[in-house]
Amino acid sequence: MAPPPTLSRQRIRYTRILEVATGFARKGLDSVVLSEVAARADVPLGTLYRYFPSAAQLVLALYRKQLTELHAPARTSAARCAKHPAASAQAEVPALALAGVVMEILHMRLMQPAVEQCLNKAVYTKDTDTTKLLREIDDAAQKAVTAVSGDAASARVLLLAVTGLVQSVRCRRLSLYEAEEDLKKACLLLARSRPAA
């Protein structure tokens, strides 16, 4: 797998590939067809293969990108809050920051079966612990939500809610949109229930 590109135009294509791949990866590794990803991302198939020679490498690159974003929750949530005009209300800012981080975790967990399939296909070397990446993701998720919420108990409650919503989406009891809306409401309720600093 080639390193991420440095030129602006190439970075835009690379990012577009990863964004499109997210939708495929939610359905599992077998649904990540590189020619379809290239077509939807509107990039030549050769460009996609230059960065990601296999579907497994594409899924793992996507997961690594999301994990990197989790490691920088303050930067990510601040950028998301700046995009929303409703963020001007003080009560909304913590809820939006929290929703940004928790939403990223929801989307990562929806992709997790595809990542586990990649790990089972021996993409890593034999000496690598295949559960290490997943443990790292869980730890990063706990730290990120705790950092933004300021409360470990609230973080646990939200992560448990994420787990339940992921199962509901996978079993088709909820649409992804409904799960996202429920998660936003939970973040808003938790942010409002916290005493002002």
The total of beta strands comes to 0
Rg, Å, rounded = 18 Å
The CATH class is Mainly Alpha
Multimeric state of these chains? single chain
Element-by-element helix/strand order = HHHHHHHHH
Kindly name the structural category.
Answer: mainly alpha
β-strand amount:
under 5%
CATH architecture: Orthogonal Bundle
Give the number of domains: 1
Outline the biggest β-sheet. none
Q: Poorly predicted ranges (pLDDT <50, ≥5 residues)? A: 74-78, 84-91
Q: Could you tell me the mean pLDDT?
A: 78
The end-to-end distance, rounded to whole angstroms, is 47 Å
Shape: globular
From the 3D structure, determine the CATH topology: Tetracycline Repressor, domain 2
Query: Approximately how much helix is present in the residues?
Result: over 70%
Summed up, the helix count is 9
Which features does this protein show?
mainly alpha; globular; 197 residues; Tetracycline Repressor, domain 2
Can you walk me through this structure?
The protein has 197 residues and is mostly helical. The protein has a single domain, classed as Tetracycline Repressor, domain 2 (Orthogonal Bundle), CATH 1.10.357. Helix content is 74%, strand content 0%. It is built from 9 helices and no strands. Helix 6 runs antiparallel to helix 7 (132-149) and helix 6 (92-120) packs across helix 9 (176-193). The protein starts with 7 loop residues before the first helix and ends with a helix.
List the helices and strands and how they pair.
Blueprint: H1 8-25, H2 34-41, H3 45-51, H4 55-71, H5 73-83, H6 92-120, H7 132-149, H8 152-170, H9 176-193
Helix pairs in contact: 1-2, 1-4, 2-3, 4-6, 5-6, 6-7, 6-8, 6-9, 7-8, 8-9
